[in-house]
Amino acid sequence: MTGPGLFEFDAFVGIDWSGAKGEFQAGLSVFTAAEGTAAPIRIEPPSGRYWSRQAIKNYLGELSSENRVLAGIDFAFAYPVTDEADQPCGSYPGYTNAPYHAADLWALIEQKNQNQPHYYGGGIWDDEMLGPYYNAPSGRRGYLFSSRRRLTEQVARVVKSPSPTFNCVGPAGVGTGSLAGMRLLHALFDKAHIWPFSGMFTGLRSLHLVEIFPSYYFSLAGIQAVKGAHGKVENINKALHFFESEPVSNSFNAAGPDYDEADALISAAALRFFARKADFWQTPKQASREGWIFGVRSAKP
Predict the structure, then answer these.
(1) Count of beta carbons in the 10 Å neighbourhood of residue 296
(2) Where are the domains of the chain?
(3) Which entry of 9, 150, 190, 267 is 20 to 30 Å from 159 by CA?
């Protein structure tokens, strides 16, 4: 049985995400694995050359209409709510109306971007009160920005250190993707279990979403995802072997601006691997507000 001890999953979906402006993105990639050991397979976009964020949402809805789906998406599901464990603060320290729960954060991000199409989240950078918390493009370094980390990111650091979630510039700027992703979570809030915010799973919803970090999975397998190393088929197969998956063909070519297909492929295999192990479903209390990267082993809850 895979899953948190309640039921099995039929499909494991690894999604390499993008927060860039525009409808179709070269950096979006989707791979799906079935139960067992077969290598994950590439899912082609339904129309055109690239995926859109809306098309990914539609795919998850269609797949979960007939399958129990565990889908991992590569963005931070929430922001840090503490600088240190004993010094609580909101997602936006000093902001009077800072959201307390993740669902409130997602609703806020959606409200601040309601005029932005295609789930783009960069509209918040123009907000007078919230914009200063971000490092944004065009040289807008927020005077309230600080390099805060969620607890899951602090724990992950021993293997691979994630970038600060409010940083939206540069190759390590994960913040733009997270903004777009939080809009997606808001749209799926009443349609999916969003771990670990939803508490214990029930059988009422067949779509389950978790946060992933592909570079972390490669690092666990002994591969540093730098300078395209993770895009080489021999390293992909080394990582697949680590996650108890069969290899891809030696002719496999990982497409995407940063070998994004390699990230989605490995994530699907890692999801299947971790879902079988009960301890990876356990998280500290703080995760119910900040979220948790699936596959990062926590301390005792």
Answers:
(1) 25
(2) 11-76+181-290, 82-180
(3) 9
